[in-house]
Amino acid sequence: MLDTQVRRYAIVGNGFAGTTAAEQLRKHDPTCEITLFGDEPYPLYNRISLPPMLRKQIPEAKVMMRTEAWHEEHGIALKLRTPVERIVPEERVVIANGVSYPYDALLIATGGRPNPIGAPGSEGAHNLFNFQYLDDTRAISEHLETAKIAVAIGGSYIAYELAEAFSTRKVETHWLIRGPRFLHRMLDEAAGAYVDAAAKADGVHMHYGQEVEGFVRSNGVATKVRTKSGLEIEADCYGVGFGLTMNVELAQAAGIETSKNGIVCNDELETSVPGIFAAGDIADFFDPILEMRYRMGTWNNAGAHGKVVALNMMGGSQKYHDVPEYSSLLFKGQTITQFGLSPDLQPEIETAYKIDAEKQWYRALYFWQDRLVGGLMLGKGNRAGKRKYVEAIKAKERYPKPEWDALLDWTA
């Protein structure tokens, strides 16, 4: 006899990983039941479009990727403003608003939440923002309409996005970085110098080695930031990029193994509890290509996870084996492309690099135990050879150290 039982899927988190998984489940199983939970009041929107929205280069309508009607058309029960309270693996249910939702397979795609700055005077300040959600973008944009001076705080990509948006909006911009340069765990001094030049060319005032001590407040508004070295900057708007804390609490309460990076899962994205999977930023997954466990918080990675995990939730055994990639503009003067592992993820990595001062190009390749495992390309037009590098990473190619410099000239 044919098995006619309808499969039930629950997905916690309606970001790119969760929504992609729901879409793939519906594509492969027209009869299944899918329940998709989201904390925010919005269906899926494109987080990598939030920075250009903040720069007023695209309208909000271009940010939205799905509508509630789309979910209805695809038979996906979308539960917005509905935080899941509990997962009960032994009963195979999730509980939200006191209602139990049974599942045959469950996906946790809860991502992370931005870290607050935590400095005295910051809590509750109406003009001090993190930058992660659509509502953040709306609020910051409104403040920039009247702001004269703005401060970006942090050495992360998010802090960069804030600094660029402030500058693009014709606001006097200061960028406070605690370390010696932007992304100091990934970029060396030479690469950092190119980013510094690009920022200054856009009119950004750069302040390195500056750790925030606190804020001066007046009527609920931060009027001045003070650093531990004594620097003081009066401003109208402050943006913070201090990384994310992964939303692992649901998993931990359900007895699912977690780590300092997220929810531990194998190369099929299944967690320590059979039938429960993790995807996107939250997944601390084992990569069979790079042969190590890590977490990758990129948009492309989230979408790729969603496709793989849907098949495995249905009973498949597909391994996630993409080489993660990230590309971004850096102000008007630079672009950055990073792929594979980087020194911030694996401290034993060795680096070979090359500088073309005339073109303002910087290229680094990362090696671990003589294997090519990653790379970084800085500078406009400096992407030749990337596909060949990625294929070499997938093939687990090893190169003796005397050959490393020659690899830097790959263009095919």
Summarize the structure.
The protein has 412 residues and is an alpha/beta fold. The protein has helices spanning 16-28, 50-54, 68-73, 134-144, 157-168, 189-201, 249-253, 299-313, 386-394, 404-407; strands at 8-12, 33-37, 76-79, 84-88, 93-96, 99-102, 105-108, 112-114, 128-130, 149-153, 172-177, 205-208, 212-218, 221-227, 232-234, 237-240, 244-246, 263-265, 276-278, 283-287, 292-294, 325-330, 334-340, 350-356, 361-368, 371-378.
* Number of DSSP-assigned strands: 26
Number of helices in the DSSP assignment: 10
Q: What strand order characterises the main sheet?
A: 3-2-1-7-19
**How does the overall form come out from the CA principal axes?**
globular
The structure class reads alpha/beta
- The quaternary organization reads as single chain
Distance between the termini: 55 Å
List its traits:
412 residues, alpha/beta
SSE layout:
Elements: E1 8-12, H1 16-28, E2 33-37, H2 50-54, H3 68-73, E3 76-79, E4 84-88, E5 93-96, E6 99-102, E7 105-108, E8 112-114, E9 128-130, H4 134-144, E10 149-153, H5 157-168, E11 172-177, H6 189-201, E12 205-208, E13 212-218, E14 221-227, E15 232-234, E16 237-240, E17 244-246, H7 249-253, E18 263-265, E19 276-278, E20 283-287, E21 292-294, H8 299-313, E22 325-330, E23 334-340, E24 350-356, E25 361-368, E26 371-378, H9 386-394, H10 404-407
Parallel strand pairs: 1-2, 1-7, 2-3, 7-19, 9-16, 10-11, 10-16, 11-12, 18-20
Antiparallel strand pairs: 4-5, 5-6, 8-17, 13-14, 14-15, 20-21, 22-23, 23-26, 24-25, 25-26
